[in-house]
């Protein structure tokens, strides 16, 4: 049970934007369907998270050039190995504690760059469910869309070591979540949550 005097959770944002977008024909971070590059749009949607990290890989310098000031770029030289390698790179950067001199984060909200209709309302709903700082450290939550699991996913700090130890290939945190299913947060009223793999 949380106390009203406990501070709100400090939730970092982690955007995975390193993929080469083979099926799409270009890195999806750089795709612009008329409202700006997807990486910039998603960073805007994550604006309530602090700090905010973006994992880059394919055409990294071009992606970094599209990030606003204050966003931390984490280079993943092994991005071709799949999403799991980007999750590990970003989560390790947070866990190392070298990126921000302030108090460490209680949780991280993990978002993908190829979900163009998932915006600030969805991200805010998940972030708000984190609760207070002490409570958020043990939380696992994920957005679901009419019952279908999707992103973003919120991972409390107590789970970071386990996710780092099990994330592999293109599975992300799936293996870790098999024994510890994240609590579902229905967001189907706000977005479809569908990733875009083809033009």
Q: Output the structural class.
A: alpha/beta
Helix content: 25-40%
Query: Would you identify the regions where 5 or more consecutive residues have pLDDT less than 50?
Result: none
Our measurement of the CA-to-CA distance between the termini, rounded to an integer number of angstroms, reads: 47 Å
- How much beta, percentage-wise? 15-25%
Record the strand order, biggest sheet.
Answer: 3-2-1-4-6-5-7
Global morphology:
globular
Count of extended strands: 7
Question: What's the story with the biggest beta sheet?
Answer: 7 strands, mixed
Structure description:
With 199 residues, this protein is an alpha/beta fold. It is built from seven helices and seven strands. The protein has a seven-stranded mixed β-sheet with strand order 3-2-1-4-6-5-7, with helices on both faces. Helix 3 packs antiparallel against helix 6 (160-166).
Write the layout of secondary structure elements.
Layout: E1 11-17, H1 38-45, E2 52-56, H2 60-64, E3 72-75, H3 83-96, E4 107-112, H4 120-128, H5 133-136, E5 140-145, E6 148-156, H6 160-166, H7 174-179, E7 183-186
Parallel strand pairs: 1-2, 1-4, 2-3, 5-7
Antiparallel strand pairs: 4-6, 5-6
Helix pairs in contact: 3-6
């Amino acid at each position: 049970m949380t106390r009203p005097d406990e501070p709100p959770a400090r939730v970092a944002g982690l955007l995975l934007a390193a993929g080469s977008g083979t099926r799409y024909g270009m890195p999806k971070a750089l795709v612009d369907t008329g409202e700006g590059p997807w990486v910039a749009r998603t960073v805007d949607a994550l604006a309530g998270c602090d700090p905010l990290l973006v994992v880059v890989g394919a055409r990294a310098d071009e992606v970094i050039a599209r990030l606003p000031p204050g966003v931390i770029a984490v280079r993943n030289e092994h991005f071709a190995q799949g999403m799991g390698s980007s999750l590990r790179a970003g989560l390790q950067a947070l866990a190392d504690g070298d990126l921000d001199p302030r108090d460490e984060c209680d949780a991280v909200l993990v978002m993908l760059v190829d979900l163009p209709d998932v915006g600030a309302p969805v991200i805010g709903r998940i972030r708000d469910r984190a609760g207070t700082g002490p409570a958020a450290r043990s939380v696992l939550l994920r957005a679901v869309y009419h019952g279908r699991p999707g992103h973003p996913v919120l991972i409390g700090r107590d789970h970071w070591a386990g996710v780092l130890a099990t994330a592999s290939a293109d599975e992300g945190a799936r293996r870790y979540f098999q024994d510890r299913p994240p609590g579902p947060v229905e967001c189907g009223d706000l977005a479809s949550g569908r990733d875009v793999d083809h033009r």
